[in-house]
Amino acid sequence: MLAIEGLTRRFGAKAAVSNVTLEIEPGAFVGVIGRSGAGKSTLLRLINRLVDPSEGRIVCDGVDVTALSGQALRHWRADCAMIFQQFNLVGRLDVLTNVLTGRLAKVSTTRSVLRLWSDEDKARGLAALDMLDMASFAAQRADSLSGGQQQRVAIARALVQEPKILLADEPIASLDPRNTKVVMDALQRINKELGITILCNLHSLDLARAYCDRLVGMADGRVVFQGRGFDLTDDVARELYGLEAGDVMEDAHGVGAETRMAASA
Amino acid sequence: MVRPVFLVQPGAAPLSSFSPNPQRIDALKGAYADAIAARRNRMILGILVFALVIVTSGWMAEVNLAKLAARIGNFTSYIERLAFLDNGAFVLTDIREWYWGITHWMRLLIETLMIAYVGTIVGAVLGFALCFPAARNLTRSALEMAVVRRFLEFCRTVPEIVFALIFVVAFGLGPLPGVLAIAIHTTGALGKLFSEVVENIDMKPVDGIVASGGNRVQVIRFAVVPQVLSNFFSYTLLRFEINVRGAAIMGFVGAGGIGQDLLESVRKFYYSDVSAILILLIVTVFVIDMATERARHALIGREAH
Question: Which ranges constitute the DSSP H helices of B61-159?
Fold first, then answer.
């Protein structure tokens, strides 16, 4: 169980995340929705501790994550893998090395710096790539791949961390409709088959309704909605997105239609 | 808020049928002339200040044009004497006599290159180690960054010949003080350049590695070094080029290399020896410049892909 208690993060005078309290049950696929700047990214970065909170706590299975430091903090980060909108791979390293950086918290500094990966780790990395149909690219430089391929490599990196939770920060915002479906389907498989909890920031309501068990709506750093997809009425959407609501819905329907077409093709 | 000014209101008559108000045009002309005059006055003031600074600095540095003109002949006659052997023959007529000390000089020349080479490598390694705490985006604390940056500044602001002088006193004559002096100066120069390269990296891979649980060393190894390595090599080669020139004068203070023989020949008026050594040095520096430039362009070329 991941419990977020009164979490606040201020940048200067502005609170990006303001007094957020949430409970995420193990094995859930939770979608975090809201307009740009609502605090979705900061919330995920707070959970991974890429950003430190100004107030509040994050507790996972009885451990106060916000108090961790050093080795314990790095192990927590490995436990809650993160994937990013811009993939955040190292472009000049090959695909398998990028995946193996997911093992860094569990490998000694000396061995990792000399890139002495164990056979077991390499097998783990290749298996993760294979699960995402990317094993044949193992020796290629990451920056030679398309966006959708890079995101799948990033997911493989997350998988070799053997995480309890996967934080996905707008994972499909830089992708075309076909790759959107490939990546969202991969996340769904990871959730259903491996039982990894997923917390996924999404802009599109349609995708959030299609893939997530539960939705959390954020506006101005606050949680303003919690519920299932069908609870999300047009009125709530308007509250979340303000004047953008029409755009988002239309956009979401458009993307949905294209993904369906791509899937049937 | 600045409002756009329409000479012609939208929907008004076309410009050709527009009859200007003479008063308004005069006002506009006046404003334009004022703006131009102000700009011209600023320019004249700038030129005056520039001229004043030149005259002052020339006066303080005792630049004496009359003296330069009166004694220019000494300089040209010195150059002329460089071209003749002690027996009065033109140097090219007896190359064997001109380069009588070639084995000795070549040994010293190689020593000079080695001083530059070892100094550059030691400096590059230390600069590499110090560039990460000196980079704004990777430093652990403002204090650490300030301390490392001041240290690097100290290393590169003291001229290497001064370091060499001090080290000759401490360690005695020979190449060791030369290597140390060049290594310290190179640490300061490359540490600064490397840290600027690091400050320009894409931070997204850094986030990626940190989020996966990498520690500081692992972040540098996997997210930073792949982005900066070719630039680091390029700067190190450039520095080697500079250090070869620096090592050539280390001998002036007894810190090894060919400089000592060059200085001795100048002091003792062995004109043909001076020209022989100078030409050896010029050719060497020339060859090294071309080789490192070619290597650096190859690196940059690989970057483009």
Answer: 65-82, 95-98, 102-134, 142-157
Residue B111 burial (CB count, 10 A): 19
Contact B226 A93 (CB under 8 A): yes
Q: Mutate which of A74, A90, A99 to disrupt the B interface (most B C-beta within 10 Å)?
A: A90
Residues A143/A92, Cβ–Cβ less than 8 Å: yes
Q: Is B214's CB within 8 Å of A157's CB?
A: no
**What are the CA-CA distances from residue A80 to residues A37, B210, B295 (Å)?**
23, 12, 44
Interface contact flag, B207 A93, Cβ < 8 Å: no
Could you tell me if A78 lies within 8 Å of chain B, comparing CB atoms?
A: yes
CA–CA gap between residue B289 and residue A243 (Å, rounded): 63
- Smallest Cβ–Cβ distance between B213 and the set A87, A91, A161 belongs to A161
| Residue B146 C-alpha, separation from nearest chain A C-alpha, in angstroms | 24
User: Does residue B5 surpass a pLDDT of 60?
Assistant: no
- Inspect the interface and report whether the beta carbons of A88 and B210 lie closer than 8 Å: no
| Domains of chain B by start residue, with CATH | 99-304 (1.10.3720.10)
| % of chain B beyond a pLDDT of 70 | 92
Q: Indicate whether A256 pLDDT > 60.
A: no
Chain B contact present for A82, CB below 8 A: yes
Q: Give the model's confidence band at A240: pLDDT under 50 very low, under 70 low, under 90 confident, else very high.
A: confident
Q: Which range is least confidently modeled, A107-111, A162-166, A228-232, B250-254?
A: A228-232
- Its ipTM equals 0.86
pLDDT (0 to 100) of residue B287: 93
Q: Which residues from chain B sit within 8 angstroms of residue A105, using beta carbons?
A: 212-214
Report CB contact under 8 Å: B204, A88: yes
CB atoms within 10 A of CB A169: 25
Per residue in A132-147, pLDDT (tens digit) is 999 999 999 999 999 9
Q: Is the dihedral of CA A138, A144, A149, A155 positive or negative?
A: positive
Q: Which residue of A has its CA nearest to B217?
A: A109
Q: Which among A88, A97, A113 has CB closest to B208?
A: A88
β partners of residue A222? A219
* Mean pLDDT to the nearest integer, B113-118: 96
- Find the mean pLDDT for residues A233-247: 71
pLDDT in the model for residue B13: 55
Residue A184 belongs to what H/E stretch? helix A177-194
Query: Distance (Å, rounded) from C-alpha A49 to C-alpha A95?
Result: 26
Which residues in chain B touch residue A173, judged by CB atoms under 8 angstroms apart?
none
